[in-house]
Amino acid sequence: MFRLLLGYGKNFHFHSNHHHKLGFRHDQRYSLVNVKLKWVKDKVLDTVVTGERDLRAAWVIMSMIAADPGGRLPVYRISRHRGQLGLPQDLKVSTFIRKYPNIFDEFHVPDSGGTLVPWFRLTPDAITLNQEAIQVFQENQKDFLDRVCKLLMLTKDTTLPIATIDQLKWDLGLPHDYVDSFIPNFKDLFSLIRLSNDRVGLKLLSWPKELAVSQLEKDAILQQMEEDVTTGRLGFRVGFPRGFGLKRKSIEWLEEWQRLPYTSPYVDSSHLDSRTDVSEKRAVGVFHELLHLTVQKKTERQNVSNLRKPLNLPQKFTKVFERHPGIFYISKKNNTQTVVLREAYDGDRLVHIHPISEIRNKFACLMKEGFLGRSRGLYKQQNAANSLENDELHQITEAELRENRTEFEEESEGHMFSEYESDDTTRLFRLCE
């Protein structure tokens, strides 16, 4: 039974009619059992998270530069968006960019006072890779469209603030400028609306019935478990890292919990009592589905902090991550908490790799190449030449400098490469082995 409980890549399933006969009202009376499973470090899944910060930050900067009409940006304009980069507060944006000179080509333009201002553009390799990413997105546009639709279908009003979607756009695989380049292509499906708090929101205008099937239900159908889908008795795939010990009380609770009714995240759940394990199973189902909507089956815990009301979840809803470490793993790398869906990984590799993830892996390899080349001094001569460049197309107006002088002075201190290095770099190295 314990091996069955662990799942080993299969849906947890009981052949029992006991609860079918008792019916839903009996299940609703199950109180929330006070069982807490310990958190155990999983070094394998930690490697999935390590390196993500540098990869994401470099990708966002690449997208920003590529979106500029001139294909080049001064460092202070990039720094305005540092909140989207997720870099440590004590790390300058310019220092980070200079780690990868085969992606970002630095040159310097004198302002009206003769001060050299650092600007960055993409190298030919980075331009090629960015074009590949755009092509992959276009080829898989229906897939990304479905992801956005399903995300909105998880909410009560099929509406989310753009700011909330922005927090998830990297995980969903959306382009940096998706609001301008993607959403307007589907005016029959989406509408940008003004919310009550004066924020802008994205609303789904119709309900695609064919999308209202959760991944858990799809997997059960593929495994010819249609009866379980019909009766609502679906369990989650559960697995624990080596050395994770479960007490008998915990095993019995988890077995009982897996037998409880599964409420699809796409159906109305207002009738559920938030004080029951049935409601908790619904919350687990919501996050299980949400993580399946991400291309790499993970997201930072803080990204879902604003989703309680839209997803109709109870207070302290993220506690389900600690309560179910066999379904979710919480990595504490990068000075944050990242929730990883265990079943999506075989070791530290995704079971199903999305095409956009393949492009990101190629980008990580390019970052590794540049980082190693920089450490060997391959790019110092090139930067020395670029620092003398004086192109009228790159001139910065005096008004711009006045507006951004504080940011500029902070970012332009020193032009030598920093020795900054982190676990992120180690992850980039491993990706290309």
UniProtKB/TrEMBL annotation:
Residues 40-370 form the PORR domain. It comes from the Eukaryota. One of its GO terms (molecular function) is RNA binding. This is PORR domain-containing protein. It comes from Tagetes erecta (African marigold).
